[in-house]
Amino acid sequence: MGVFCTRCGTGLPAGARFCSSCGATIAAPYAAARPLVRPIIGRQVAGVCIGLSQAYGWDLSLIRVLAVLGLIFSGGAVAVAYIACWVGIPEEFPAMPGNMPGAVPGPVAGPFSPPPPNA
């Protein structure tokens, strides 16, 4: 999908923020975000901060710093909210190796596979 300036109609590259012809600001096209889940990989405690970061496109370091400052200075309100998010946000469903794109269907020989029949 091409990006066009809303003011002058000039075609622009996909990552453009300003029109090269008239200098107008280009509105970012809508991008579908990830669902709000607690990922398994990359978490520090329960995955709440990284889940919020990935779902809403926020900076992970900033969220973690704000969470720690909130835990220190909020009198426990942020701790209650963090625990509520820990319980309420579902954990990411791990992908099974057989469901990966390009996986080979059928049995795979392994160390505990029965020997092939003699033919």
Can you describe what's shown?
The protein is mainly alpha-helical. The chain has a domain at 32-92. Helices cover 29% and strands 3% of the residues. It has a two-stranded antiparallel sheet with strand order 1-2. Helix 1 (48-56) packs across helix 2 (60-73). The longest helix has 14 residues, at 60-73. The protein is flat. The mean pLDDT is 79.
Give the structural class. Answer: mainly alpha
Total E-strand runs = 2
Distance between the termini: 57 Å
**Global morphology:** flat
DSSP helix count?
3
Q: What is the averaged pLDDT score?
A: 79
**Measured on Cα atoms, how large is the radius of gyration?**
24 Å
Oligomer state equals single chain
Poorly predicted runs: none
Proportion of residues in extended strands: under 5%
Spatial strand order of the main sheet: 1-2
The helix/strand series, from N terminus to C terminus, equals EEHHH
Name the helicity range. 25-40%
Biggest sheet character: 2 strands, antiparallel
Key terms for this structure?
119 residues, mainly alpha, two-stranded antiparallel sheet
Ordered list of secondary-structure elements with their pairings:
Layout: E1 3-4, E2 11-12, H1 48-56, H2 60-73, H3 77-88
Antiparallel strand pairs: 1-2
